[in-house]
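Researcher: If convenient, please comment on what follows.
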Amino acid sequence: MAVTFYINLAYLLGAIAFVWGLRLLSTPDTARRGNILASIGMGLAIIAAMLAPLENTSNNYGWILGGMAVGAGIGWVSARRIQMTAMPQMVSMFNGLGGACAVVLALVEVFQFYGGERTLDSGQLVIVLSTLLIGGVAFTGSLLAFGKLQGLVRDNTLTLPKHNIINQIMLLVLIVMGVMLVIQGQEAGLTMAMIFTVLALIYGFSFVIPIGGADMPVVISLLNSFTGLSAAAAGLIYENNFMLVGGILVGASGTILTVLMCEAMNRSLLNVLIGGFGGGGGSAKGADGDQVAKEVSINDAAIQLYYSNSVMFVPGYGLAVAQAQKVCKEVDDLLEANGVDVKYAIHPVAGRMPGHMNVLLAEADVPYPKLLDLDDANSALPNTDMVVIVGANDVVNPAAYDDPGSPIYGMPVLNVWEAKNVIVLKRSMSTGYAGIQNPLFFHAKNRMLFGDAKDSLNKLVQELKNL
């Protein structure tokens, strides 16, 4: 009885640490403490879970500790070596492994149930099958998201005709099979349960296939919520309150973030799932005709920045690719030293995962108060002397307002053209991840500074130092 009390107490303290850690993650200033606190909570829960079955003499603590050591080693090395450009891929992969764990736990129950080693009533069987389905979708869906983000899989290369109808049919088949497995119980047989599992894994791939690359931040957030739900379902299987609470927290936060990101793009979740946004092939008004983008030299750009009263940087995925965040901060410091007010405009879906730009700039020690969200940035832009766009494209595209034929029409974007002057740092005139041209490049207020973002910013640093 005493052991049970302390185990439940450890679960309670772990859950409190999780909740408080999540609260601290809401701002960069406290995020590190929140991460550490949540890790301590997870450690408490793991210790409690290992102490729970002490009366069972067949515990395999050696295997458990060995697996933890290997997993911790892989996680440590991966986290140390991963580049910021690949952070979305790592998040997607780790998220998928969480779904895989839920699948493995559910499969253990399935084998024991059909092997006659354990009895499951209808409610318990529903939970097990739900864990298999949700965890399977999170696992294989995250793997495909990783492939798209890594450039191993191109958008639309795997898409079949009427692919969304195929997905609907697969989901319907899975639901029917699940109902039959619950009704028939052990009579359904292990083979049918394995077919259900394999089909769930295939559906995970198929679910993500038609989703365009530009929607990957939403997909990662959605799959993260799936992983949380599968963990919560696994908690129900084992009557583990900590798994239940942790899974609900992850599932709920992922769902809320998904909804917020869809609102930021002025699109429904259904439109994201079936839209194929980012497949390339759209066009925006202003991409045709004899329009010519005007260039600016490094020297002229440095002079304009140096003598401005206010400057706003707009970071995008190109900033991550060029690993230019620290050089950008150096430009920031030089301008601030000359009395220039410097801010950063952060679009909710800039980058390849939720909060991607915030993470990059935090790594460069950019103070959090300098980061403006979409609404605050748009309010400040009309009074801004210079806007410097570093690697962003689709989130500053005016076609969202004035081109009903554009795939991003209606999406809230940063109104950078309202500033007095704009400079876009890009390698070329190529389209962004959404696959559409940007009329901003030909705007009268805009000038293009071609080249690698990090190299261009380094040259700006040298010019600013010479002024």
